[in-house]
Amino acid sequence: MGNSINLTGFFPEYMEIEGVISEDTEICIKLRSKTKTCPCPVCGQDSQRRHTFYQRIVYDLPILGKPVKLVIAVRMYYCTNDQCGVIVFNEYLRDFVGSRGQWIERCEAFIMAVALNTSCEAASAICKQAGVLISGDTIIRMLLRNTREVPYTGEAIGVDDWAYRKGQTYGTLICDVQTGKPIALFPGRDGAGLKDWLRGNKQVKLVTRDRAGAYAAAIQEVLPDAVQIADRFHLFQNMLEAVKDSIKTILPSHIPIYTEPPKDADTSEKKNHVPDRA
């Protein structure tokens, strides 16, 4: 039985493996594109006029805990369309890595799956232990870049704020009340993003929200006929505050607790004592 592994099946057919270098800290795999034609990203016309190669470095899933770096020799082509403003363009590595990505698609999918089931900071720590070096901020940008617009036709939504960084940076989240799934995400919690979104979703008739005045004002301005109700958490808060206020009207603010009877208080014996007649 040999002690080598065939890596060809792990990469697209148009990629050729030129070499593998295993070091103490990482594994480097050198690849070269075998394509002979490529469409222009602007006009779409196929071109066979090759210009040169350039090296692109991206990262793959780790092997036995070691980070895997891919050094890819990518072709550059001349655009043969005289009417197109593009002269030279880079080959697009289809079904492998995006035009500006630093990780190949399967590695991005792994990172986002961990982040969606934990948090971005926790995912960063888990990925580092597994051999994928990435920060929490980079994971946030990756999730936003891969976010797709969710079609929405419901009439009930929930609005709340959430923290990028607690106490410093906040955003606004809109969810579908029926499914509980997120619909839209905006930076800030001043209500500006919510107003823009509501203008394109006039079918909304009911909004659950917290007690923030900015959200209430945004909903009232765009959808004055929409019903606004407090969410479950704030309903409980309102109830507890009402109970406290009721108790305060019945009980005194301070209830003294004595360990011994007060000096000026009459004992039961004195109250019931009848003096002897002379």
Structural features, described:
The protein is elongated and about 105 Å long. By secondary structure, it is of the alpha/beta class. It has 7 helices and 12 strands. The termini are far apart. α2 crosses α3. Strands 1, 2, 5, 6 and 7 form a 5-stranded mixed β-sheet that branches. The mean pLDDT is 82. It folds into 3 domains: 8-94, no CATH class; 103-147; 156-232, Ribonuclease H-like superfamily/Ribonuclease H (Nucleotidyltransferase, domain 5, 2-Layer Sandwich), CATH 3.30.420. The protein has helices at residues 105-117, 120-130, 136-145, 192-199, 213-222, 232-250, 268-272; strands spanning 15-22, 27-33, 38-39, 46-47, 50-63, 66-78, 88-90, 156-165, 169-176, 182-187, 206-209, 227-230.
Lay out the secondary structure.
Layout: E1 15-22, E2 27-33, E3 38-39, E4 46-47, E5 50-63, E6 66-78, E7 88-90, H1 105-117, H2 120-130, H3 136-145, E8 156-165, E9 169-176, E10 182-187, H4 192-199, E11 206-209, H5 213-222, E12 227-230, H6 232-250, H7 268-272
Parallel strand pairs: 2-6, 8-11, 11-12
Antiparallel strand pairs: 1-2, 3-4, 5-6, 6-7, 8-9, 9-10
Helix pairs in contact: 1-2, 2-3, 4-5
